[in-house]
Amino acid sequence: MNEPAVSLTDVSTYLPGDPIAADYYAQFAESDDLRDNVMFRAPKFRHHVSPEESSIDMIERAAQGLIERHGQDVIEGADVLITHTQVPDMAFYGQGGGIAHRLGMRPSWVLDLHNGGCAAFVLALNVARQLLASGQGRTALIAIAQNAAGQFFDQPGVRRKAQSAVPGDGAAVGLVTLSEESPVLGIECRTYGQYAGEMTLAYDPPRKWWQAGPGEGSIGFTESKITKVLARGNRQVPEVALAVCDRIGLDPKDIGVLVTNQPNRVFLRNWREALELRAERHRDTFDECGNLFGAGIPVNLDRAISDGQLEAGDVVMMAAFAHAGDFAGAAAVRWGGRA
């Protein structure tokens, strides 16, 4: 018996504030051993969440496009809500309940995902697909908030580091339905537990993240760690994308649009070359938005849909890896068009 079709019906997004140019970070930059590393070549612009703006605020603003196109009732009546927030507003719990309340929802399922990282949208789509196909509802929302740039990376002590100039903030909400409108053709999710914990926070002097002390925490990058992450990311993203292609019988050259996370320009180039795709078929907003972490895939997908790069009938391949390479995922959708 075939499973019922599940579709990624639509997506809408939000970028906070005005674009912030690279000059903003140049005024704070100090000598940094990693400043010339390819991982930290800054984008021209990025957006920052304001100190007063919560991740729930961001999701509510991102959802407006879906409300305008599909109606408030569709959002309020969703059976499943799956969320991912890069920097939770509160340490002990995720934002799922607060998002449900803000959007007027009474979902049967509320799930906060943390392990998906930059591939959270693919992981959430996989979970939503399984829940809807198994009879747990007819509609799901995927809500992603990347809010680390204007909070974590803009701390006075961190903004002086090369790593601070790359991230940008943004949010997205995807609508998943039990339908054949824009069917999910295949998904591949892989966990690489041996790399879990290799992404770390660094403090000087060392302390737990929750302990009081001098100085702000930053990502604990070293040349050795960066080399390993580059090697893993270069391998994992094409691997999961090709696994999906193999499962659904799609020649990679027939991918209509490739949408990935966007840590830096090197990864973007290497991934499309590995899949033998021309640059114009790989959508990114790196120089406009920087590294959007988990919001990268839905923001780029929304842009590809809005400007007609992704047309009805095209197959869009979404692929990403997370953290230091502990998770990777890819999903193919045959786009049916936006109503």
From TrEMBL:
GO terms for molecular function: 3-oxoacyl-[acyl-carrier-protein] synthase activity. It comes from Mycobacterium angelicum. Residues 245-335 form the Beta-ketoacyl-[acyl-carrier-protein] synthase III C-terminal domain. Residues 115-193 form the Beta-ketoacyl-[acyl-carrier-protein] synthase III N-terminal domain. The keyword Transmembrane does not apply. It comes from the Bacteria. Keywords: Acyltransferase, Transferase. GO terms for biological process: fatty acid biosynthetic process; secondary metabolite biosynthetic process. InterPro entries: ACP_syn_III_C, ACP_syn_III_N, Thiolase-like. This is 3-oxoacyl-ACP synthase.
